[in-house]
């Protein structure tokens, strides 16, 4: 009888302890993992600003027109307004953020006769340019 009581109380204490512990643990875990998945508006704005700067520094603006970026008035390539709403990239590649990133890294891989020279950009810079081009 006494053994049973001890067993029960040990079990109860263990259970009482384990509940808050697991709750605390999962709360701590979610706080820890949350920022890496969260997209704050500020972070997105910052990436778009970097993309905007790259449009100029990487020479895109000398070949492309973009209404929201007045210095970009090149007429060698097509205007890049409403890029997010366009169905195809360069008329050959279904439009998506991923495909646009790949196109910017190597246009001729997708359109062999493309007059667009391969930009001198890193994968990260291509992602920033896409963030900016897809901005409303
Ligand atoms: C020397 C001129 C030139 C430069 C510099 C240039 N492009 Fe282009 N771009 C073109 C031409 C020409 C096309 C059309 C290519 C095709 O249809 O294959 C094009 C196509 C594109 C397209 C597809 C547009 C559409 O309507 O499908 C995007 C997006 C693009 N360029 C973005 C950029 C970005 C971003 C940069 C800078 C990193 C850049 N371009 C630099 C000439 C240029």
UniProtKB/TrEMBL annotation:
Q: What class of enzyme is it?
A: oxidoreductase
The cross-references to Pfam families, in alphabetical order and at most eight, read:
Cytochrom_C
Q: Supply the InterPro entries for this chain.
A: Cyt_c-like_dom, Cyt_c-like_dom_sf
Q: Which domain of life is it from?
A: Bacteria
E.C. number(s) listed in UniProt: 1.9.3.1
User: Where is each Cytochrome c domain found?
Assistant: 46-136
Question: Which keywords are on file for this protein?
Answer: Heme, Iron, Metal-binding, Oxidoreductase, Signal
The secretion signal range is: 1-38
In alphabetical order, the GO MF annotations are: electron transfer activity; heme binding; metal ion binding; oxidoreductase activity
Supply the name of the protein: Cytochrome c oxidase subunit 2
Q: Which organism is it from?
A: Paraglaciecola mesophila
């Amino acid at each position: 009888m006494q053994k049973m009581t001890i067993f029960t109380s040990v079990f109860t204490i263990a259970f009482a302890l384990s509940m808050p512990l697991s709750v605390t643990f999962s709360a701590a875990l979610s706080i820890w993992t949350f920022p890496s998945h969260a997209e704050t508006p500020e972070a997105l704005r910052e990436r778009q600003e970097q993309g905007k700067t790259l449009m100029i520094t990487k020479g895109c603006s000398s070949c492309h027109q973009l209404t929201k970026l007045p210095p970009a008035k090149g007429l060698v390539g097509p205007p890049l307004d409403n890029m997010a709403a366009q169905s195809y990239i360069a008329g050959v590649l279904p439009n998506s953020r991923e495909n646009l990133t790949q196109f910017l890294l190597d246009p001729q891989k997708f359109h062999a006769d493309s007059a667009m020279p391969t930009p001198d950009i890193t994968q990260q810079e291509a992602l920033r340019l896409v963030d900016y081009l897809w901005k409303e």
